Amino acid sequence: MIGALCILVALVGEGLKISEVEVRQLSRARAVVLAALGVLFIALPILTGHLG
């Protein structure tokens, strides 16, 4: 869940405001790091076999 959220924020990092939630504009470096963390959070349980 957290990984998907990180990837989503990285993809819409151009600035997004929905109701009370606001995603400010991210620099390219921050968006890349956030996307990489998202992929890591999603891939880590798959690679280690701890999917519950």
Helix content: 55-70%
- The backbone outline, from C-alpha atoms, is elongated
Q: Low-confidence stretches at least 5 residues in length (pLDDT < 50)?
A: none
Overall mean confidence score, pLDDT: 79
User: What radius of gyration results from the CA coordinates?
Assistant: 13 Å
What's the story with the biggest beta sheet?
A: 2 strands, antiparallel
Number of helical stretches of at least 4 residues: 2
Compute the separation of the termini in Å. Answer: 14 Å
Strand order of the largest sheet: 1-2
The ordered string of helix (H) and strand (E) elements is HEEH
Strand content: 5-15%
What structural class is derived from the secondary structure elements? mainly alpha
**Got a strand count?**
2
Structural descriptors:
about 10% strand, about 50 residues, mainly alpha
Could you characterize what this model shows?
This protein is mainly α and 52 residues long. The protein contains two helices and two strands. It has a two-stranded antiparallel sheet. Helix 1 packs antiparallel against helix 2 (28-48). The two termini are 14 Å apart. The model has no long low-confidence stretch (mean pLDDT 79).
